Fold each of these.
Amino acid sequence: MENYILNENKKRLEPTETDCEYCKKRKVNSIEDCYFLNLYNVKKRTNLLVYRSVKYSLIKVGIRRCVPCKIIHKNADKNTVLYTTLIIVALNIILFSVIGIFGVITMFLSLYLAIFLLSFIKNKLSLQKGILSDQKGAKQNQLVKDFLKEGWSTKTPFA
């Protein structure tokens, strides 16, 4: 925590060091180039028969990232959506032509496949450039590890 300062206006922890945590070669130019990982901590959960609610705390933790690593992550995000869409559309066309009307079932299976493909392709595209994906790299940060040990989560809580 000593390497971070709290920005109360933006409700986030900003790193004070400047070495990139992804490539470990370059320096961070601007705090806005950093990747900010959302961490959640459930404060109160209510489950009644007809009413559900959850109250939680949110903090953003800045992960040091240089401009080239930021560009790699942005390109990986764009290309992941493109590649996944092409794969799913091609798969549906092929299965519709082979199975016929029962190919409608493949549309539902494609949704599950798309969820898997999104994270898989994003990780592969980042690894090809020699760095971890933004999410996986962020989880290597010591402060994030400490928050996760204390019960915080990277997934948005729901009722």
Note: The beta strands are 4-7, 12-15, 35-47, 52-63.
Amino acid sequence: MIDPTLLGVLKLSALVVLWGLMAAAVLPLAALGIYVVADKLKLRWLADPVQNALGRLLSLQPLARIVMNIQGGAALTVLGLWSILAMQAGAPIGKVILGTPLLIPFGLWRLWVGVGMARRLKTDR
């Protein structure tokens, strides 16, 4: 049995990673929208700093993709293994989710893609 304190820490850390990934995906788009509106309204005092920040925000997106692929691949693989192990022997086909065994190779593929992206990013820098 997992300690409730440890479970709470794991849930909190998962939420922090989730919100971080969402912010890395959404903030550049929001900054781009602000930049376009400020540029059209000729607000140079707002458009220039937003344009500078936009470059930094866009540099975070490859890291977010890498983390998402590695974390998502590991989660799909573990979910597939858990569902196969949790099936009762002799369970009727209607109770067994037929796509569950496909989660394992798809999860491993996403994990492999994430590791490959991390290697490529490491060699590019």
Note: The CA atoms of residues 64 and 111 lie 14 Å apart.
Amino acid sequence: MRMLCKFWKLLVSVLVLICTSCSLRYTDTSSGQTRIPEFTFNAALFKRYEDNDVSFELESSCIEQYPSDDITYAANADFKSHDAKQDLSGTCKLLGIQAEGDILYFLDDTIIQNQSDNLGIETKSLKWNTVTAQIVSDCNVFTTVQNNGMEVSGTGFSADSTTNEYKFTSMVNGKIETESFPEGNHE
């Protein structure tokens, strides 16, 4: 009888230990699934058409869409936007496209050119809200803007893409190139 009592105590102790020490959550189906892409496209070329004309092109070494995010990521992205008002092109190491909210994230070695306005931006990261037309960088990210012979660099860059007005929150460095006139012929 004593042996049976010890056996039950041991069995109850083991069951309590097993039941309370298990940390697996079998009802949580999202665990481990968020970082697996739902779609992957390698060596991808994406084109968006509006009125039978190409309005946007994206070429990337890899495009991934994740089921838990509404963001599509494009690695080593080359992009071109064709618009009646302006032609934009650029490159970046990682492009995040958030469909909800129309936000673009340009990360690592970003270069954007606006050929129509002779404007260029070089930086490590930018966030562009295409609905509000606001472009911002992190406050500590160094950004360079080239515009018609002028080059300005600083941190805390922000701009309005409809007016091409921009500002920096830090002191800036820059240079301005002007046409040189022959000696004695200044107008």
Note: The longest helix spans residues 2-21.
